Amino acid sequence: MRDFNEQNIEVSDSKIIGRLLTFIKPHKKRFIIAMILMLLSLGTELVIPSAMGYLLDILRKNEAPDVILKEVIFLTLLFAIFIAFTFVVVYLQSIFLQKIGLNIVVTLRDKVFQHIEKLAIGQINQIPVGKLVTRVTNDTNSISQMYTDVAINFIRNILYVIGIYIILWFSSPKMTLYLTITLPLVFLSSILFRNISRKSYRRVRSNVSEINAFLSENLSGMKVTQIFNQEEKVNRIFEERNRNLRKSHFREILVFGIYRPTIYMIAMAGAIIVLFTGIDEVIAGVLTAGSLYSYYLYTQNFFEPIQQMTEQFNTLQNALASSEKVFDVLDTVPEIVDSEDAIELESFSGRIEFKDVWFSYIPGEWVLKGVSFTVNPNETVAFVGATGSGKSTILSLVVRNYDIQKGQILIDGIDIKNIKISSLRKHIGQMMQDVFLFSGTILDNITLKDDSITREEAIEAAKYVGADQFIESLPDSYDHVVLERGNNFSSGQRQLISFARALTYKPSLMILDEATANIDSETESIIQESLNRIMNIQTMIIVAHRLSTIQHADKIILMQQGEIKEMGTHQELLSKKSLYYYLYELQYEEKEKGEND
């Protein structure tokens, strides 16, 4: 699978912007209102420079002081009304835009997270967690700024420039022609800035993702780093990535730092042209002093929105770079999906059949080679064998974490590819070697915050597996707070909580993958006792390292290099005195040696 975080495929800005605009559709009414408010504020801002020039001409008139005073007072009050009106309109516009932006970012984050949930385990395992976190949080936040800071303001500034240019042309075509000479320089600078800044922003977003991925991985694995005294080496790697992020930020600042002064210099050149040509126009009587003053203000306002657009380029490029990353996640097609005619299973008896199953994680490197076996309802089947023989892979295939390349996997005679994934997994309980507990309470971790499961049902499941013995000794019992990853519990306690979680959902099939490998003997005996009770009422598939824990299984399958080498009960396999027999003898000798030591 391609790593959608590191691809170098560039998508055109127009396609990205077009796709971003689709998120505005549900908020169309608010956006239209914001547009109307923007146009109102724009109208008042276009009037003010003309009014200022008119006021200057009034002050220069040789009229009676009281007449001039009245006109000045009237215009001052009019200015105050304009300013107050503009303040209210801009405030309302900002509120509408912020609501649109916040609603869109919530929608987008939900969409990205839900899509990640649909990806196959194999796809997710290839992506650093920190990069996924960056996509859901930082990148979506950058996109929301485009709606709040860029979308309408960019349109506003374009309309403002056009409006001012029209006013300037009608005021003085001659001066406007001179001013127009500066525009090609503005456009050329903007095009050059756009191309360079886009690459800079892409590099920044990639470096942010890399540093987040590094932090996520190394903070989770800090215990290993400290045990092996690798802090200095890890710190050097972090410093290197941190410097890379700083360099990309500096490059981004440098590009913007050159562009903005360039626009400012062009604006000053335009102002100088206006003053030189305008003075001649006033002397010739073509313009009044007030008209020249108004023209000068409009000239300054003409370049101001262009400067603002340069700042908005900053936000826009950041949003576009983030959008590429986010849309790349959304465009990643899940490898495991429901077929069009997939069915919903209300329940199943638990008959599982593998028919000549071939599977590989990497094309050509077969992990399972023509595996065939049957698990009957209420039967317990155990898989044993060396590491890498394909035992755990079989369990992953049953729940469709991966899809097989050849053969068939049937449940109650139905190909699992024809069963809805949610329906399939709903009836399968799993206990893994590495138990993951979420932050919250013990009760939350047993029910997974599923409102359909009552507190009483969760407690009943905990008692059934023997987890109540340690839970009820805690200060808050089932409401005891679980720290990150369950670090305030032992491996055995976490496994008991996991067992209670699995039974709470009343599965038709129970899967145990080395579930008792890393726990103490006392907890193992508690789990084993519970397993013995449910062996006759549920179908069970067990992957075990300790052969002593699976002696009572109805069927034991020994795997070697992706193939089934032996199959039978514990006594049948021992009587053959083949691979299973030697494996059992080896473990027995190791146990005996350990007891003697």
Describe this structure in words.
By secondary structure, the chain is α/β, with parallel strands linked by helices. The protein has a domain at 13-330: ABC transporter type 1, transmembrane domain (ABC transporter transmembrane region fold), CATH 1.20.1560.10. It has helices at residues 13-21, 28-60, 65-118, 121-125, 129-171, 173-180, 183-220, 222-227, 231-283, 289-330, 391-398, 421-426, 442-447, 455-465, 468-471, 491-504, 521-534, 570-576, 579-596, and strands spanning 352-362, 365-375, 380-385, 406-411, 414-415, 428-432, 440-441, 481-482, 509-513, 539-543, 555-560, 563-568. The strands form three sheets. A six-stranded mixed sheet has the order 6-9-10-3-11-12, with helices on both faces. A four-stranded antiparallel sheet has the order 2-1-4-5, covered by helices on one side. Mean pLDDT is 82; it is low at 1-9.
